[in-house]
Structure formats: structure tokens, C-alpha cells
Design brief:
Elements (H helix, E strand, L loop, with lengths): L6 H18 L3 H7 L4 H9 L18 H14 L5 H17 L2 H13 L4 E4 L15 E4 L3 E12 L6 E7 L9 E7 L6 E5 L11 E12 L3 E2 L5 H37 L1 E2 L2 E2 L4 H29 L5 H25 L2 H4 L5 H10 L7 H12 L7
Helix pairs in contact: 1-4, 4-7, 5-6, 5-7, 7-8, 7-9, 8-9, 9-11, 9-12
The structure holds flavin-adenine dinucleotide.
Flavin-adenine dinucleotide binds next to strand 1, strand 3 and helix 12.
Length: 385
């Protein structure tokens, strides 16, 4: 594994950093305050190719892979972690999964809009009573001969009420559990029978919309089944193993933002006649943050490298996601302590960092679920895909 970035990767890094500083940074606090989703940022990300990783160029992909993707995403998430969701919501979720499992017609119809940012994407797995236990989902797709009829409720769907196109996982076999799920492509703008409700009052991620989706006799064209019937669980796990890199990269980037902020503050804030950074206890906190920040970033690059080289990477992805989540929560907590009272004020970003960091412990597999994946692979109970 080469730890140095190639010239092309450096250019991608510079471009993404420049974009995040110019197009995202000026709006972060204002949009947070107003819980405002700035749609045009997604369009600009698409224009710059920031949504087209590992997608063939014939469908609008940017011709670059995992190493460039995590390098760019890291720069964006460091400025505002909400925007890391768009890469998973558009590219690593629907576009990449359609590219892997879709028919030629599905690829041509849906991928270009997602990678260009013309359309907002999503993927809907979770339900009010089905979270970690994906196989227990109740949303059902009934085969009506010439179409599918979908009924059920999805919960906590990122971009659910703002998206144009998304993947929906639903049961297609009564009592089939994980073996009776299938995946569908949903055109949200042209499908009657879907009610989309924003979930308000979230702890964090205030500029990233999250939604409840209610399907009541929603008619889905027959050709919108993605991949084989009843293989939805495998498709879902394949997809999550990609989208989890969004959480891993986003959490590593958030821990880096906390460290950078804490270092600056520790050098500026003076107490007892010297900068607080001169005190050993603050140095210990900075050292712990640095250790976790470096380790989180290394795990992200290791998983990305394995993916790039088409080597087994499920355990590496879970390690990066789990460790990154811990590093982000710990880093945000430490930053708030180092900033003292100012950390508790909305004048500084510590509150946002802490609120946003907590998401990583839950979504796309809770920390418990990732510990199980890591241990089961280690113990030889399941293969490392
Ligand atoms: C901001 C946000 C965005 C989201 N975006 C999406 C999205 O775009 N699409 C989507 O489909 N979902 C999304 N989710 C949902 C998210 O993926 C789920 O919340 C997550 O999978 C956990 O499910 P749950 O909340 O129902 O928790 P549960 O599964 O009910 O878990 C509750 C607790 O029990 C523990 N637990 C459960 N089972 C076990 C077990 N077998 N062993 C040990 N411990 C266990 C968990 O670790 C957790 O601590 C989002 C959630 C949030 C908060």
C-alpha cells in the first residue's frame, strides 16, 4: 500500500478542498441554524465530478476510483459532515448498485442523472420496527402481473423527501425474511401513492434532510426490479459495504476537524499566563485526538485501497467505520472540553461536531453490528467479502 498521494490524487484533493472552502464553508453555520438543505451544492458537486466515483465514463462517471473518492470526500466532510451524505446518497448507494446489478436500460436511464447531480438519490431500508434486523422489514411488494404494488413505511431515510430517484428494499415473499427481499428503483416524482414526511427535531445533521416514506398502493413498473427477485438482502449488504465508506471517511474527517480546531484554540487561549496548550493535561488530550485521527484516516485508506484492488474488504470497511465513529465522538467531546465555555456556545462549532459525530454510531450499521461483523469474520464464522 502506497501512503503517498499520486499527482492526480493531489489535484483531486486540492479541488475538493477549494470547493468545500468556497462553496460550503460560507453557509455552514447559517444553514445549520435554519436547518436548510442547500440543493445547489449537490448540483455543483455533480458538475465537478464529485458524485461519479467508480462509475464507467459512458454513464457519466469521473473515471476515478476509491482512493480519489475518499481523498475528496474527506476534504468536504471536514468542512461540513452533512455533505458527505450526498456521495453515498447519489453515487455509492443507487448509482453504483444500479451499475453492478442493473440492466443496460436501467443504467442508461438512472445513473447519469445521479452522478451529474441533476437528481437527488436515496436508499430506503430502515422501517419503524426494522433497523439492524433488515430481514424483518414489512414493506411488501406484490406482483400484480404487469406491475408491482408497494405498501409499507420506511423511516430515517436520508434525502427521502428531497430525492428524485432511490432504491427501495421490500419483501417479495411472505415469511421469507432475508431470503425474501428484493430491490426496486423508485422514480419519486412520477409515482402516485407515496407520502414523504420530513423528520424534524433531529439531534444533528441539520442541513441533511431525513424522512419518513409511506407507500400506499404505490404502482411500480415491472422493469424497476433491480437485480434478481428475492436477492435484495445480498444487494443491500453489497451496497452498504460501499456506502459505509461514507460514514468511515466522514467520521475520520470530523475527528480531523475537531483536532485542528482544538490545536488552534489551545495555542490562542491563555490561562495562568500561558497558552493552555503548554499544559500537560491539554497535551495529553491533543495526543489522544491525534492518535485516533491518524488511525481513523489510515483505516479509511486501507479499506479504500482494498476496494480499489478488488480484494476482500468487508472487515476493513467495518473497522474503518467503527473506529472512525469512536474517533469522531471522542474527538468532538475532547474539543468541547478544550474550548471550555466557548465550546458550549453556538459561536464555535463544537456543539455541531458533537451532534453530528453521534450519528456515526448508529447509521449504516450500529457500532454493535460492526463489532459483530469484525468478530465473525475474525472467528471464521462468515467470509470476508
Ligand atoms: C441521520 C440518520 C440518517 C439515516 N439514513 C438512513 C438511510 O438513508 N436509509 C436507511 O435505510 N436508513 C437510514 N438510517 C437508519 C439507520 O441506518 C438505522 O437507525 C440503523 O440501522 C439502526 O437501526 P435502529 O435505529 O432501528 O436501531 P435498532 O436496530 O433498534 O438498535 C437499537 C440498539 O440495539 C442494538 N442492537 C440491535 N440488534 C443487536 C444485536 N443483534 N446485537 C447487539 N446489539 C444489537 C443496536 O446496536 C442499538 O444500540 C438513518 C438514521 C439516522 C439517524
Amino acid at each position: 500500500m502506497d501512503f503517498g498521494l499520486s499527482e492526480e490524487q493531489r489535484m483531486v484533493q486540492d479541488m475538493a478542498r477549494d470547493f468545500a472552502n468556497k462553496e460550503i464553508a460560507p453557509y455552514v453555520e447559517k444553514d445549520e441554524e435554519n436547518h436548510y438543505y442547500r440543493r445547489e451544492i449537490l448540483t455543483k458537486m455533480g458538475d465537478l465530478g464529485l458524485l461519479g466515483w467508480s462509475i464507467p465514463e459512458e454513464y457519466g462517471g469521473n473515471g476515478m476510483g476509491w482512493m480519489e473518492a475518499v481523498t475528496a470526500l474527506y476534504e468536504i466532510a471536514k468542512v461540513h459532515t452533512s455533505w458527505r451524505l450526498s456521495v453515498s446518497g447519489n453515487c455509492w448507494g443507487p448509482a453504483m448498485t444500479i451499475n453492478e446489478y442493473g440492466t443496460e436500460e436501467q443504467k442508461q436511464k438512472y445513473i447519469p442523472g445521479l452522478v451529474s447531480g441533476k437528481n437527488v438519490g436515496s436508499f430506503a431500508i430502515t422501517e419503524p420496527n426494522s433497523g439492524s434486523d433488515v430481514g424483518s422489514m414489512k414493506t411488501f411488494a406484490t406482483d400484480k402481473g404487469d406491475h408491482w404494488l408497494i405498501n409499507g413505511t420506511k423511516m430515517w431515510i436520508s434525502g427521502g423527501h428531497t430525492c428524485d430517484v432511490g432504491l427501495l428494499y421490500a419483501a417479495t415473499e411472505v415469511g421469507g425474511g432475508a431470503k425474501g427481499l428484493s430491490c426496486f428503483i423508485i422514480d419519486y416524482n412520477n409515482t402516485p401513492g407515496i407520502t414523504r414526511n420530513p423528520i424534524l427535531g433531529k439531534v444533528g445533521m441539520w442541513t441533511a434532510p431525513t424522512s419518513e416514506l409511506v407507500f400506499e398502493d404505490a404502482v411500480i413498473p415491472k422493469e424497476n426490479l433491480l437485480g434478481p427477485l428475492n436477492k435484495g438482502f445480498q444487494i443491500c449488504m453489497w451496497m452498504l459495504n460501499n456506502t459505509r465508506m461514507g460514514c468511515a471517511t466522514g467520521s475520520a474527517a470530523l475527528s480531523a476537524a475537531c483536532l485542528e480546531g482544538a490545536v488552534q484554540y489551545a495555542n490562542e487561549r491563555t490561562q495562568f499566563g500561558k497558552p493552555i496548550g503548554k499544559y500537560q493535561m491539554i497535551q495529553q488530550q491533543i495526543a489522544e485526538m491525534k492518535l485516533e485521527d491518524e488511525a481513523a484516516k489510515s483505516l479509511v485508506y486501507r479499506a479504500a485501497w482494498l476496494k480499489e484492488n478488488k480484494l476482500p474488504n468487508q472487515q476493513a470497511t467495518s473497522l474503518a467505520k467503527l473506529f472512525g465513529s469512536n474517533a469522531a465522538v471522542h474527538g468532538a467531546n475532547m474539543a468541547m472540553k478544550i474550548y471550555g465555555s466557548y465550546g458550549y456556545s453556538t459561536e464555535y462549532p463544537c456543539g455541531r461536531w458533537l451532534r453530528d459525530a453521534k450519528q456515526f454510531e448508529t447509521l449504516e450499521g450500529t457500532s454493535n453490528i460492526h463489532m459483530q461483523i469484525i468478530a465473525k469474520i475474525e472467528l471464521g464464522y462468515q467470509p470476508n467479502r
